[in-house]
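Before the break, one more example. Copy the sequence into your notebook; we will annotate it together after we see the structure.
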Amino acid sequence: MPGYIGRFAPSPTGPLHAGSLVAALASWLDARAHGGRWLVRIEDVDSPRCVPGADQMILQQLSACGLHPHEPPTWQSHRSALYEQALQRLVAEGHAYPCACSRKDIADALAAAHRAKPRHGELVYPGTCRSGLHGKAARAMRVLTAQRVADGTWQPVSVSWTDRRFGAQAQNLAEAVGDFVLKRADGPWAYQLAVVVDDGAQGVTDIVRGEDLADNTARQIHLQRLLGLPTPRYLHTPLVLGPNGEKLSKQNGAPALDVSRPVHAVREAARALGLTVDAPTLGEALAQAASLWPDRYPDA
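Here is what the structure looks like once it is written out:
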C-alpha cells in the first residue's frame, strides 16, 4: 500500500516481554506486508513510571529480533510543545475545558445521580465543570464528549469504526467514559492526547496493537476529528496470557524477553498471532511470517 506508515509505541517501564514482542512483530509484519514504513516511538511522557535505561534495552531487544525501524526512534518526552499546541487549539475551539473535580467529587456526583458504577475501575465523569470552575482551582483539562444542542441540553458523542479483526465497533463516549482528561495540573500529558498528536504528526496510516488497547480507539478517533487529523485503520491483535489467565504484563511479573535465541522468540510471537513459523534462521522466520500474515489478517 503506497504511503503506509505503521508504528510500535512501547512505554519504557521495563524491558520487552513475550507479549510486547507479539505487538511489535504484528505491527512490523503488517507494515512489511503492505510495503510500508515501520516506526518506533518511545512513549515516555509518564516519567515517574519510566525505568532508566529501559528505552535503550527495548531498542536492543527489537534489533536482536530483526525488527528495525525505517527512521530513528522518537521519544514523546521531546514533543511536549506539540501536545500543548493541540490542547490550546481544543480550548480555543470550545472542545476542552478546565476541571476542578477530585476523584471523590466525581464519585459523590455519580452517587447522587445513582450512577456510581465504575468502568474498569474508572469513574465516568458526569460533566460537572462544563459550566465553569465557580471559583475553584483547576485540577485537569478535559475534552467534551457531548455537544450542546439548541435547547441547551447535551447530546452525547458516539463514535463508530471498523476494526480489521473485530469488525464494526461503536461507543457512546459520554456514557462509556465521560469527558476524559487531556492533562492534569500536576502531572504528565495524558496518553490519549499524546498518542493522537504523535500519530498525526508522523503520518501514521495503520495502527496495529494488542486488543487490550481497543477500548481507547473511540476516544482517539474523537480527538482526531476535533483536531482535523485523519483516522488510521485499526487492527487489534490477540494477547499473550499469563498462567493466571490475565494479560501478560510487567505489572504481573512477566519476565524480560530472552533474545539470546531470537529465532525462537520470533517463532513463539508468530504462534501467538496464529502463524505457524518453522524456518531455521531469523531472516527466514521473519520472511515466512510475513508471507502468512495477509491471509491471517486481511485488510477487510
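The first strand starts at residue 5 and ends at 8. The longest helix spans residues 18-33. Try to locate both features in your own notes.
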